[in-house]
Specification:
Layout lengths: L10 H9 L4 H9 L5 H5 L7 H13 L3 E5 L7 E5 L1 H4 L2 H14 L12
Antiparallel strand pairs: 1-2
Length: 115
Amino acid sequence: MRQSKRRSVCPVACTLDLIGDRWTLLVVRDLMAGKSHFHEFAKSPERIATNILADRLARLEKDKLIASYPSSVRAGAFEYRLTERGRSLRPVLEAVRDWGLANVRGARAQIQVEP
């Protein structure tokens, strides 16, 4: 992310500028759970709109959290994979999950994230 787009130099604000919207961490969660194609992300229980999904995938790739590759199973499609930088978000997702399980009534972990 370029310095000019930052609200401040605060590391919390900088991180939220990168991954703090409503959908980005859900896409990262799905990647960690083994999803890799656009249609798989679109079928997630949160029902992200396809235009928003396309935008988040583009942002994640621009910010080098994911990389895209020609699909090995769908002609003309792409597969998305987390980069090392994207995989480094695992403890963040685990902390958010654990906090939600402990503090949000009715929250349940339903999607298994691969190790």
